[in-house]
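Respiratory-chain NADH dehydrogenase domain, 51 kDa subunit
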Amino acid sequence: MNIVLPLKQHVGAPCKPLVKTGDLVKKGQLIAVPEGLGANIHASIYGTVDRINEECIIITPDKQQPEAYIKIKETKDNLKAIEEAGIVGAGGAGFPAHIKLNTDLKGGYVIVNGAECEPLLAHNLKLMEESPEVIIRGIKYIMEITNAAKGYIAVKSKYKKAVRGLKKACTIETGIEVKFLPDIYPSGDERVIIRELLGVVLEPGKLPLEAGAVVQNVETIKHIVNAIELRKPFITKDITVAGRVQSGRKGKVFLDVALGEPVGKYIELCGGYVMPYGEITLGGPFTGSAGNEKTPITKTLGGILVSMPFPQETRKMGILACECGAQEERLREIANAMGAEVIAAEKCKRMVEINGRYRCDKPGECPGQAEKILSMKKKGIQVLLTGTCGD
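Structure:
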């Protein structure tokens, strides 16, 4: 079972390999660096470089896999350690953490996103429940880096065990608090977090910096702590496997799995499939995409979800896209899997175009869509496929 490490696991351009075919590599060794915006990539195992192409480095593992890893080099400060470790956001687009945190908040806010917003995903929740002290230490490091005055942990009140642990860990710290998010989708959206915690409404395309804040998700905080305290590069990932697997619909959480391993390995570790099954969805139910058993685990992959087979549809279909739920490309992918003919497409009335991308102007506040649906009905649709999170 080879390890496949994509050269693009982050926002920006693909990284440039530092190794060549036949090279022996050690776990933690730096094997690719960004050319421009991006983040370092390190070997996640001991092995031999089998081949390199434009998209990835493929490594054949050694039979023996010691626990020890090559530590990142000593750095002059913690921000540089985060850069050396190749840390990117562990969910979403994978924005490089050292760039996001290279700012002076001048008394602003560090916010940890603990919404665990996508249904079925549970690895961030497990980390909050079992290691709340890691979250606190990570907030303190980021507050020092950014000169922030306050640290908030944004979490849903229904996560009672996590809330208890986090509040207890906060009692010995000043300037760090637990704050509650509404139990809605998409409460994990950065603009929703800023709106709910700080009372600032950010226009589409605006970043939390506009409100004097930076937001990092729970697992990203863990990797930051590992880089600073253990000099560990970003070579492992926390994931949730759920859906039609033998371990049960709610699935199983795996912590610190090696980057580059195939998702099929973790389906097997859940006992394999429940028959019949359909798509392997990478990510969450709302914003995930289709994958297969050979798809490698990357820095941004959080969920491996096995679905029911898609129902087949012969009626003429319309699709209604949403930023928070599913964009048009994903809905067309699902429609194709259903064998459907798409004859009309609309976007949620809250969608606005920002720099070529459609964004929701008020995430979490969903309007009625009668006008859009009636428009498609006039075009002849007989059935609707929608990704709007309120529907």
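The chain has a mean pLDDT of 95.
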